[in-house]
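Running this now, will post back.
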Amino acid sequence: MSTDQSQAERDLLTRMASGDTAAFSQLYNRYWDELFTLAARMLRAEEEAADVLQDVFYSLWQRREELAVSGSVSAYLHTSVRYRVRDYIARNITRRDYLSLLTDTAVHTLPPNSLLRLELKEIQEAIRSTVARMPARVREAYTLRREHHLSYAEIAGKMGTSPETARKQVQQAMILIKNTLGYTGVAVIMALSGLLK
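Update: finished.
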């Protein structure tokens, strides 16, 4: 980033701290697309990515008077998005299959000889083993959601049950996976999500 661009961004932050909504709009418009791409890639879901970005920019505006950005605004915003995504995943880890998603993504983006990649393959195997031991209906609901990306209504139609039952079965599968991995496994996967740039 050039010195002129860096100074221009600092000027925007100074104006924004004084309540200048036009300065905030300029930052929002300048960074929305690239931050949205980052969040969507990490979450694999555009709607959730948009929600995360709204939170990041809302927080930026709410904290405008006390904000202290020591490096570039771009780096600050990228870091903010990564933290918000990790927080979102932690809060929603049993609602969607984020554990498997993050593990798969990390395994395919880390170098082949990486120790982390080998550890993640072990976590993937633990997930596969847990799925194999699940009650048949729970495993079926999880597989239809995870591998076939079906909605709960579609799963219910295939399994002859209600969408609410399908949702509960998928949640039960996610809880079983989370319990198998324990806090350490979940924390490792979430920390690795920050490496997936």
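DSSP finds nine helices and no strands in the chain. More later if anyone needs it.
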